[in-house]
Write a structure and sequence with these properties.
The complex is a heterotrimer of chains A (123), B (208) and C (292).
Chain A (H helix, E strand, L loop, with lengths): L1 E5 L3 H13 L3 E5 L2 H10 L5 E5 L7 H8 L10 E5 L4 H10 L3 E4 L4 H15 L1
Parallel strand pairs in A: 1-2, 1-3, 3-4, 4-5
Helix pairs in contact in A: 2-3
Chain B lengths: L1 E2 L16 H9 L4 H10 L7 H10 L3 H14 L2 H9 L6 H11 L3 H11 L5 H12 L6 H11 L3 H14 L5 H10 L4 H15 L5
Helix pairs in contact in B: 1-2, 2-4, 3-4, 3-5, 4-6, 5-7, 7-8, 8-10, 9-10, 10-12, 11-12
Chain C lengths: L2 H5 L9 H15 L8 H15 L4 H10 L5 H10 L10 H18 L8 E5 L6 H13 L7 E7 L3 H9 L1 E3 H4 L4 H7 E5 L2 E4 L1 H4 L2 E4 L6 H5 L5 E6 L8 H14 E9 L13 E4 L4 E4 L4
Parallel strand pairs in C: 1-2, 1-7, 2-6, 7-8
Antiparallel strand pairs in C: 3-5, 4-5, 8-10, 9-10
The chains are: A alpha/beta (123), B mainly alpha (208), C alpha/beta (292).
Chain lengths: 123, 208, 292
């Protein structure tokens, strides 16, 4: 199962990579939404996305919205990870096309549980 | 039909250069988005237009015009331009805010200077954005501000951003501060991870 | 004279893993390029050259130099230059030409109003010694089924007048034409001497060469909205952040609404600008100026 981790923080990408690789996923990285779209299009699309909110060029919301308009990508499940913890922020993420919402800093067990749940749902 | 022969001369008439006032009028007015874009780009060489560009940016609904205005402000690069962009970090418009962060990240010292005040803002988001800007800049006085944030900020995400920025620009003497930060947030796996990376980075920089 | 050069050819110390990781992060952040393990030898050799050239003694020292002393960004540009392959030849990155005739031009044509009197305009920059704009011309003639139905203009620009003169002359060596099918070579070139291929006059005269500089607002303003497709390959990657951003604005201005821009295969707008919409065609990813 292949995950694309989208975050402008190098440390966050490395951390999420470590968690997901330990859990048996292969991981690719992108540092903003536009790069993420390009990578998602490049070879085989990823099976799962983990997406930060605030990134240059194309933020997480814009990325998810763009993703959901593309026939080849629109069904890829996405976890949005954000520093914001209000319900309104989660709602906004879901409205943009996220399936699940995580508050940063992410707990490894939660990320893995969410990832597996989304993979199970599409298996 | 088919490939045309090379043209001998450019048939497009050259327009007279426009005054700054005229360009600002177009930018703030009811012109088309394309006209507002062209006006913004033409103001790249007009530092005196910084305040008007900021005001236009705050009201501009069209994202491609926003981008042109930001490009002009980056080119102008003055303190008023940076100050205006710094004020936009408090905007609720995600795209506008991220555009402001992107711009400030390319404006060097004038932008860095603006961040000091933001690092003392009550809103942790503003402090976080200030750190995002500083992480992309090389402004030696900012190291002290980063150290304060690592040592004292009570918000874990703000502290993490400061750790990440300081890891790139700091020195081996910062390692104890990183570990002290980790001690303030026990049980946070990401904090432990980030601090391990940060220590490794500053400690590998010693000597030579 | 750097310390290293003065000491003679002392072998540089092997890059420590942390420094190499740091280099990769820097390069990825700036260019979007990740070097796989297979490229390690190539990267190491190039880094050694840069370390020697700057007299910084080690990768660690070199990175510190880049962080603290490279005020103008000149060394960073040299680093990017060193790490990317710069040769030009006919049909380089051919998948984009395929995309042009298969996907892009049909869309351009479909979007036109029936009575639009303007030709379809393509722009190649930097055009260097002409392989790219001439490749466009040949591709249109060889592979675009609708080429006889539309007027097409090709403009080609480079700020280097020497390469421009060479481009106008239209004479190429074996290395430039090596990937052209024999049929194409026979049809569009003569061979005045062994190892030299001379482009036929009809094709030479189909490209309009000039020295327009992408960062020159005055020059660029005159071409606002003029082009349907711009090929700007392997240029922006060498610009600093601000110039790159400005260049993207000018490319946007120079395109018609709905027009397309193609970058080099290891370049990405993700490091440059959010102005354009990503379009994925079967042969290539390209960027499009929104329609309005």
């Amino acid at each position: 199962m292949h995950v694309l981790v989208v975050d402008d923080s190098t440390t966050a990408r490395k951390f999420h990579r470590q968690i997901l690789e330990t859990a048996g996923f292969t991981v690719e990285e992108a540092m903003n939404g536009l790069e993420a779209l390009e990578r998602a299009f490049a070879a085989a699309p990823p099976d799962l996305l983990v997406v930060d909110v605030n990134m240059p060029r194309m933020d997480g919301y814009a990325f998810l919205r763009a993703l959901r308009t593309e026939p080849a990508l629109r069904d890829i499940p996405a976890i949005m990870a954000s520093t914001e913890r209000e319900d309104a922020d989660a709602e906004r993420a879901f409205a943009a096309g996220a399936n699940l919402y995580l508050v940063k800093p992410v707990q490894p067990e939660t990320l893995v549980r969410f990832a597996r749940a989304l993979m199970g749902a599409t298996a | 039909m088919g490939l045309l022969k090379r043209r001998a001369a450019d048939p497009v008439p050259v327009a007279a250069p426009r005054s700054v006032a005229s360009l600002i009028y177009t930018l703030r007015g009811a012109a088309t988005a394309a006209e507002r874009r062209a006006a913004a780009l033409d103001l790249m060489a007009a530092p005196e237009a910084a305040a008007e560009l900021i005001a236009a940016l705050a009201e501009e609904p069209h994202v491609q015009v926003q981008q042109a205005i930001v490009t002009a402000l980056i080119s102008i690069g003055t303190s008023p331009a940076s100050a205006g962009l710094a004020r936009l970090l408090a905007s609720g418009d995600t795209a506008l805010r991220n555009a402001a962060i992107e711009a400030l990240q390319q404006m060097g010292a004038p932008a860095a200077v603006q961040m000091e005040a933001l690092l003392a803002a009550p809103d942790p988001d503003l402090r976080l954005f200030a750190l995002n800007v500083l992480s992309a800049l090389r402004y030696p006085p900012a190291l002290a501000w980063l150290r304060v944030a690592v040592n004292r900020d009570e918000n874990v995400n703000v502290g993490l951003a400061a750790v990440e920025a300081l890891a790139e620009q700091g020195d081996p003497a910062d390692a104890p501060a990183f570990r002290a930060f980790a001690a303030r947030f026990p049980g946070e796996a990401f904090v432990a991870f980030a601090v391990t990376l940060a220590c490794r980075r500053v400690l590998s920089d010693c000597g030579r | 004279m750097s310390d290293l050069a003065a000491r003679g050819q002392a072998a540089p110390p092997a890059a420590d893993p942390e420094s190499f990781e740091r280099f990769q992060e820097l390069f990825y952040r700036k260019t979007g390029i990740i070097f796989g393990a297979a490229k390690r030898y190539f990267v190491d050799r190039r880094l050694e050259e840069r370390i020697a050239s700057t007299g910084t003694g080690s990768l660690r020292g070199y990175l510190r130099f880049l962080r603290n002393d490279d005020r103008t960004g000149e060394e960073l540009q040299r680093l990017v230059n060193a790490m990317t392959v710069n040769e030009t030849y006919f049909y380089r990155e051919e998948y984009q030409f395929r995309c042009l005739v298969t996907s892009i031009l049909p869309e351009v044509v479909a979007a036109r109003k029936p009575q639009d009197p303007r030709p379809i305009r393509l722009w190649s920059l930097p055009c260097s010694t002409g392989e790219e704009p001439y490749s466009l011309a040949i591709q249109l003639l060889e592979n675009w089924s609708a080429v006889d139905l539309h007027d097409v203009e090709i403009m080609a620009s480079d700020i280097d007048t020497r390469v421009l003169a060479q481009a106008r002359a239209g004479r190429f060596d074996r290395r430039s034409v090596q990937y052209l099918p024999d049929r194409v070579k026979r049809r569009y070139f003569s061979q005045p001497e062994a190892g030299q291929w001379q482009l036929i006059d009809d094709l030479r005269s189909s490209v309009d060469f000039n020295t327009i500089n992408l960062n020159d607002r005055e020059a660029m303003r005159r071409h606002a909205g003029a082009f349907d497709v711009i090929f700007c390959r392997n240029l922006l990657i060498y610009f600093d952040d601000i110039s790159r951003r400005h260049a993207a604005e000018e490319i946007y201005e120079a395109l018609r609404p709905g027009g397309f821009v193609c970058l080099g295969h290891s370049e990405s707008m993700s490091r440059i600008s959010s102005l354009f919409t990503l379009r994925r065609f079967p042969d290539a990813l390209v960027y499009q100026k929104p329609n309005s």
